[in-house]
């Protein structure tokens, strides 16, 4: 067994705090499972709670064959799963395929774009839904990010309300859904009802506190603006540029600094407005980075966030970093633990 994997195995308490017991026999639906964070969630579950029933992975693909191929190349063959592979050896693929079910679909579509029979079966069986699907670019095309980060939560919540055994709906958001304000920002649900007026926030141009009166952010209205923009610009390249600018204009109009945080906030508001009695947990990480310890130190994919700093430091190119010594750095490594704790509070 890999030394790093062996070290992690030895550090895991046998009893734990109850997460493994909670997940035992559960069926889980995960969106964005081929992404950076989604894969980490899948790996953590399979490594520490192998007695889960099934994990349905919603994968965008033209058919089942392509979805299966993506599962194998982007999940099973990923370095991230090397500890699971070491544990099961030659039985690794058999174990993975006994737990993972690739599902052709798209969060931007009704019923998540699933085949009808499969959608019915999942609604009858699933206990947990994890939404990690997201466009994470700060300034993307407005239609692209609305489809995934706003319509996605809308369609997922509609799906969740039809799941007879659902115990938890976990939505991954961002700490920056709150408008920038020159005071302590308390954790609170964003809703379409209370967004009509917000506290004064810091204006970056003149550093004066302003009061913004925000009309309700309605998804239907944003979709209409997108449709109108597409009609006005037939040239694809020009339309793409205008749609990116439209997203930023809309975000700035309501007080958000970029399209990403604005539409993420919209996604939270949509969830709150239609959730009814669905048990919801919203996680707001400030930044998602590489692994500190599990399943092994230093797992990085791509080149984002603070990755350039970590890589430059590791290569000896960045010997220091200017900062304030009294700044508190919160490192949240136990996403599943926090979700489980919140679920226990709601029970």
TrEMBL record:
- Alphabetical GO biological process terms: long-chain fatty-acyl-CoA metabolic process; suberin biosynthetic process
Q: What InterPro entries does this protein map onto?
A: FAR, FAR_NAD-bd, NAD(P)-bd_dom_sf
- What SUPFAM superfamilies does the record point to? NAD(P)-binding Rossmann-fold domains
| Pfam name, any one | NAD_binding_4
The reaction(s) this protein catalyses: a long-chain fatty acyl-CoA + 2 NADPH + 2 H(+) = a long-chain primary fatty alcohol + 2 NADP(+) + CoA
Query: Coiled-coil ranges per the record?
Result: none
Q: Where is the Thioester reductase (TE) domain?
A: 30-332
> Which UniProt keywords are present, listed alphabetically?
Lipid biosynthesis, Lipid metabolism, NADP, Oxidoreductase
Q: Which CDD domains match?
A: FAR-N_SDR_e
Where does the source fall among the domains of life? Eukaryota
Q: What class of enzyme is it?
A: oxidoreductase
List GO molecular-function terms, semicolon-separated. alcohol-forming long-chain fatty acyl-CoA reductase activity; alcohol-forming very long-chain fatty acyl-CoA reductase activity
Q: Does the keyword Zinc apply?
A: no
EC number(s) from the headed UniProt entry: 1.2.1.84
Q: Does the keyword Lipid metabolism apply?
A: yes
* Family per record: Belongs to the fatty acyl-CoA reductase family.
In UniProt terms, what function does this protein have?
Answer: Catalyzes the reduction of fatty acyl-CoA to fatty alcohols.
Q: What is this protein called?
A: Fatty acyl-CoA reductase
Organism per entry: Corchorus capsularis
């Amino acid at each position: 067994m890999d030394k790093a994997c062996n070290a992690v195995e030895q550090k895991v308490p046998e009893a734990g705090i109850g997460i493994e017991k909670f997940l035992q026999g559960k069926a889980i639906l995960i969106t964005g499972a081929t992404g950076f964070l989604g894969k980490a969630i899948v790996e953590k579950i399979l490594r520490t709670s192998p007695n889960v029933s099934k994990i349905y992975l919603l994968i965008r693909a033209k058919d089942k064959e392509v979805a299966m191929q993506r599962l194998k190349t982007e999940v099973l063959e990923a370095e991230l799963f090397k500890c699971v592979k070491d544990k099961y050896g030659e039985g690794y693929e058999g174990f993975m395929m006994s737990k993972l079910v690739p599902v052709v679909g798209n969060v931007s579509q009704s019923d998540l774009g699933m085949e009808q029979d499969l959608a019915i079966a999942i609604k009858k069986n699933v206990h947990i839904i994890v939404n990690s699907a997201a466009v994470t670019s700060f300034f993307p095309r407005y239609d692209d990010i609305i489809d995934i980060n706003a319509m996605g939560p809308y369609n997922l919540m509609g799906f969740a309300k039809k799941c007879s055994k659902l115990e938890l709906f976990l939505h991954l958001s961002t700490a920056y859904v709150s408008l920038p304000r020159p005071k302590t920002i308390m954790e609170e649900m964003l809703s379409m009802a209370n967004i009509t007026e917000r506290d004064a926030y810091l204006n970056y141009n003149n550093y004066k506190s302003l009061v913004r009166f925000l009309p309700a952010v309605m998804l239907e209205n944003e979709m209409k603006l997108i449709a109108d923009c597409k009609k006005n610009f037939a040239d694809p390249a020009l339309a793409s540029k205008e749609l990116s600018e439209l997203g930023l204009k809309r975000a700035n109009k309501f007080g958000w600094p970029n399209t990403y945080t604005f539409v993420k906030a919209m996604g939270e508001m949509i969830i709150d407005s239609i959730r009814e009695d669905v048990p919801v947990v919203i996680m707001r990480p400030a930044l998602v980075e590489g692994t500190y310890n599990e399943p092994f130190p230093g797992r990085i994919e791509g080149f984002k966030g603070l990755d350039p700093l970590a890589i430059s430091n590791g290569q000896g190119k960045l010997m220091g970093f200017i900062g304030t010594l009294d700044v508190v750095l919160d490192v949240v490594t136990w996403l599943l633990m926090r979700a489980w704790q919140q679920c226990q509070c709601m029970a």
